[in-house]
Amino acid sequence: MTRGSGRSPFAPDVLPDGRRRYSHRAVVARRTLLVGVVAAGTSIGVVATRAGGVDDSPGVVGVAGGDPAVHDAAAQPAPSATPPAHSLTEAGSPWVIVNKQHPIAPHDYAPEIAVVGGKEVASTIAADLQGLLAAAKSATVSLGVTSGFRSLAHQQDVHDNAVARDGVESAESVSARPGYSEHQTGLAVDFSGSSRPGCLLENCFGQTPEYDWLVANAGRFGFLRRYPDDKTDVTGYAPEPWHWRWVGTDLVAQMAAKGVTTMEEFFGVSGGSTYA
Ligand SMILES: [Zn+2]
User: Fold this and answer.
1) Which of 14, 37, 54, 165 is spaced 20 to 30 A from 173 at the CA atom?
2) Ligand 1 center to residue 255 CA distance, Å?
């Protein structure tokens, strides 16, 4: 199933500022945006090249418009009967839903990249992620980023390795097929904590002080736990306490107000463990 513009009941969305009009097809998949992140009291790194990156595509620099520091300031709470303030289908949208029913379009999409906490992420989330890490540090919580943006090629490797290691069935519950990973949007982050290093990308991360801090504070920075313990049937993924998705504070607040914990349920979008 491809993500045609007519697939979503909400499509097409045209944002007032036109920030998502730029063509990611025209811009190459491999590019790096140097974002001037001022890291006050944090260990935010900014790099200018993709040396040592996850694939070997030529590093052509593209400019795709839009201010990475500005996101959903124009978003208003969306009554259920009206279209969402942001596209649910465009890969660069803060509210894009990527799951096993809804692959990324275009398949080889890559966002503008910033580096925060030593990892590549979409530049749109850089300021909030930086703020989150700085707040954690101020609270003496040892949060780090272990994975952010993953290219199509990188996800292929991750998935192949998971299948080789765990078998298809087990791997598919935790590792997205290439083109279906939220990490390819650059909006998803896997957090790590140093209190229990053995819990890196393990369920016991959910019993760490770092996780508790995220539960209490990540929403202030627009991050949502994407794969809750009790929503595997909805999300298509086993619980992942380390995997958080930036959606912006407006949507976090809207979902919390309704007591809804998944994007699929909030927007009425299909999900689950079956690939489209
Ligand atoms: Zn993840």
Assistant:
1) 54
2) 21
Q: Where are the beta strands (DSSP E) in 171-237?
A: 188-193, 223-225
Domains and CATH numbers, the chain: 72-267 (3.30.1380.10)
Backbone phi, psi, residue 211, to 5°: -65, -45
Query: Of 90, 172, 182, 240, which is the active-site residue?
Result: 240
Per-residue pLDDT tens for 125-181? 999 999 999 999 999 999 999 999 999 999 999 999 999 999 998 898 888 999 999
Q: Residue 36 has what DSSP assignment?
A: -
Residue 36 CA, ligand 1 centroid: distance in Å:
25
Are 223 and 190 in contact, with CB atoms under 8 Å apart?
no
Question: Is 265 assigned a catalytic role?
Answer: no
* Per-residue pLDDT band at 81 (split at 50, 70, 90): low
SS3 184: helix
